[in-house]
């Protein structure tokens, strides 16, 4: 039986521009579909009426059009499928795979507060799960929500095409809402129904959606549908290792056009963020389509680097056809329209001087400048005194010149003039460059003369002689403060910490994701693991957990808590750069990993409310100091919640736990 044709989709919410992360996702979906000869669909997920912005829809479409990521068929509007979403929810109710929930907001808020008080993650307790179909709420609720019946036991797992097998215990998934009280579908239901009806075979999206996937699989299974293949690509980080945001330059994709980037440069660059084909750095979109599979994706976040993007853009500017290049510049700067012939003449001298189209236009200022030119302050010095005499002589020379007007013909003419006057060539070229371009740096002077034309060369020189040019003052430089001398710690010792700083805060404990695990080749006690902690590369760590975890339990996709500022240590010859935190009984016969809560972001710090202090720098903390100063007070409470001196270890998604250690 042959496989169905590949169909991918990009499904943004219309709440803002097409940011770089979304553009990369759309590109990967496009490349994957084209590689397998399939289709790439665009769906606008506009069910949230309050946040919907039609201008954002236009911005998304504009960004995709500029990027050259063309979708197949009409755009699907999720909001138009509301009736279909409701039908599926009702079908699940009739099959007793979903149920109406009459719990009030006040009751749920109370349960949530109680869970927080007891330092437990909140899970809906299933109060209404077994109510009869004809139930009438005594509280008078007439607009119940609809919840899916999530499995109470076992695991939900899938073979992720990027991250590997991911398994989530069903005890961590509650009966999620699929239909709100007003009849509108939730995101999770709408996505599942639409992906099924659109016959999506492959869902490629950011790793921040991993937590949604087990919930969506439960809905697929309840509906009796086969779920698509999932591939969760790592997020894009800024140079500081944090998730890419506006402060890093994560602006709308279409804004990169106004910044002077070529779409083929952006496609090439985005393709290389967490995907590779050998050592190839520069390749065409056609080559990317030929090569692209998810097997080439890494599990680690990539870093958005403007310098690399600029260098790549410079390459594509050099490769660009002169007519298209002029049209691109003209779109950004309509004022260049009358100068097409001069731009064509200057193209080979302008390309090497530009990494963006804005720099290309700036390099061509001498072509479009109106007389009399505005001179930079430094350049203006070249047209005074002896410089003015040089220009006067050049004017007379050129007025009497009737030969060819080409760089090859003009060079010997100017060289001979300099020799006849007993001047060095620079003494002639400097005032000419100032008069013809207004700057001290430009393409070669003979090429500039050729492009500007005889009449304008004479006219610009005459303006300089007559003193008609305005002078643009150089920007004032702010005086730099002398760097303050700081007491540097002695080499090999950590910088002094605040004497009152709690010992726990000196550690940098982060949420990590196992990306690879293997048995230590020389020790039957050790696991070796690669752990993504939100840095450029995964860390390699060795842990003495082999007696407590099987291969099935200790594998890629599991989240752990990792101390990341330890000094590297050799463990049976393996250099371990960190420590995975676990809970153990007094006899150390039972050991359990400390688990971050579902929804905790990879790389985020595990903190304790009310404890302040910056962690010591990387590679500064000795393992012995942890054993002595921190571990004795690390305990689990009666619910398995990790604490230190009574304070709960938590992430943005809730507390960390060792569920059976209490």
Offer a few descriptive terms.
alpha+beta, 28 strands, three-stranded parallel β-sheet, five-stranded antiparallel β-sheet, 662 residues, 33% helix
Number of helices: 21
Broad shape: elongated
Secondary structure class reads alpha+beta
β-strand number? 28
Largest beta sheet: strand ordering: 17-16-15-18-21
Biggest β-sheet: count, sense, barrel?
Answer: 5 strands, antiparallel
Please report the distance between the alpha carbons of the first and last residues. 52 Å
Rg to the nearest angstrom?
33 Å
Question: In words, what does this structure look like?
Answer:
The protein has 662 residues and is of the alpha+beta class. Helices cover 33% and strands 16% of the residues. It is built from 21 helices and 28 strands. Strands 17-16-15-18-21 form a five-stranded antiparallel beta sheet, with no helix packed on it. Strands 1-2-3 form a three-stranded parallel beta sheet. Strand 22 and strand 23 form a beta hairpin. Helix 1 (20-35) crosses helix 9, helix 3 crosses helix 5 (187-197) and helix 17 (407-421) crosses helix 19 (445-452). The protein is elongated and about 105 Å long. The two termini are 52 Å apart.
Could you provide a short overview of the structure?
With 662 residues, this protein is α+β, with helices and mostly antiparallel strands. The chain has 21 helices and 28 strands.
């Amino acid at each position: 039986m042959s496989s169905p044709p590949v169909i991918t989709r990009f499904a943004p919410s219309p709440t803002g521009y097409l940011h770089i992360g979304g553009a990369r996702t759309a590109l990967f979906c496009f490349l994957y579909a084209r590689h397998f000869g399939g289709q790439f669909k665009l769906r606008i997920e506009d069910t949230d009426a309050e946040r919907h912005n039609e201008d954002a829809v236009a911005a998304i479409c504009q960004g995709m059009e500029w990027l050259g990521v063309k979708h197949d068929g009409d755009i699907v509007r999720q909001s138009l499928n509301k009736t279909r979403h409701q039908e599926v929810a009702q079908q699940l109710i009739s099959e007793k795979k979903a149920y109406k929930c009459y719990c009030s907001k006040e009751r749920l808020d109370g349960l949530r507060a109680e869970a927080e008080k007891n330092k437990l993650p909140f899970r809906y307790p299933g109060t209404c799960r077994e109510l009869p179909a004809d139930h009438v709420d005594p509280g008078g609720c007439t607009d119940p929500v609809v919840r899916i019946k999530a499995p109470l036991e076992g695991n939900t797992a899938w073979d992720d095409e990027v991250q590997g097998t991911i398994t989530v215990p069903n005890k961590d998934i509650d009966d999620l809402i699929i239909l709100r009280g007003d009849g509108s579908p939730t995101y999770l239901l709408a996505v599942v129904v639409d992906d099924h009806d659109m016959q999506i075979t492959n869902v490629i999206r950011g790793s921040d959606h991993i937590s949604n996937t087990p919930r969506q699989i439960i809905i697929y299974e309840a509906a009796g549908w086969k779920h698509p293949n999932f591939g969760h690509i790592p997020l894009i980080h800024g140079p500081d290792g944090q998730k890419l945001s506006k402060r890093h330059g994560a602006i709308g994709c279409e804004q990169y056009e106004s910044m002077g980037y070529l779409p083929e440069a952006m496609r090439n660059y985005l393709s290389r963020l967490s995907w590779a084909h050998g050592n190839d750095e520069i390749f065409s979109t056609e080559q990317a389509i030929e090569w692209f599979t998810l097997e080439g994706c890494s599990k680690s976040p990539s870093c958005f680097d403007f310098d690399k993007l600029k260098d790549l853009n410079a390459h594509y500017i050099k490769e660009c056809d002169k007519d298209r290049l002029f049209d691109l510049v003209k779109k950004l700067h309509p004022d260049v329209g009358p100068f097409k012939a001069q731009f064509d003449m200057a193209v080979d001298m302008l390309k090497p001087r530009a990494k963006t189209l804005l720099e290309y236009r700036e390099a061509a200022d001498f072509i479009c400048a109106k007389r009399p030119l505005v001179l930079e302050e430094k350049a203006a010095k070249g047209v005074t005194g002896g410089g003015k005499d040089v220009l006067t002589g050049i004017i007379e020379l050129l007025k009497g010149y009737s030969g060819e007007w080409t760089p090859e013909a003009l060079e010997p003419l100017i060289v001979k003039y300099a020799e006849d006057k007993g001047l060095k060539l620079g003494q002639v070229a400097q005032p000419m460059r100032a008069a013809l371009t207004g700057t001290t740096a430009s393409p070669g002077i003979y090429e500039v003369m050729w492009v500007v034309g005889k009449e304008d060369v004479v006219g610009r020189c005459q303006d300089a002689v007559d003193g008609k040019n305005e002078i643009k003052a150089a920007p004032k430089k702010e005086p730099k403060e002398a760097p303050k001398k700081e007491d540097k710690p002695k080499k090999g010792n950590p910088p002094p910490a605040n004497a009152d700083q709690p010992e726990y805060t000196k550690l940098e404990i982060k949420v990590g994701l196992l990306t690879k695990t293997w048995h230590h080749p020389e020790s039957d006690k050790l696991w070796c693991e690669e752990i993504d902690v939100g840095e450029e590369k995964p860390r390699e760590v060795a842990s003495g957990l082999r007696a407590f975890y099987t291969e099935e339990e200790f594998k890629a996709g599991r989240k752990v808590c990792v101390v990341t500022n330890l000094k590297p240590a050799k463990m049976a010859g393996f250099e371990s750069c960190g420590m995975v935190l676990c809970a153990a009984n007094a006899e150390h016969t039972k050991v359990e990993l400390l688990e971050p809560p579902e929804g905790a972001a990879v790389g985020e710090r595990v903190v304790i409310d009310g404890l302040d202090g910056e962690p010591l720098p990387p590679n500064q903390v000795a393992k012995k100091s942890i054993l002595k100063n921190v571990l004795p007070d690390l305990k689990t409470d009666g619910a398995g919640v990790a604490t230190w001196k009574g304070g709960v270890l938590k992430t943005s998604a809730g507390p960390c736990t060792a569920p059976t250690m209490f």
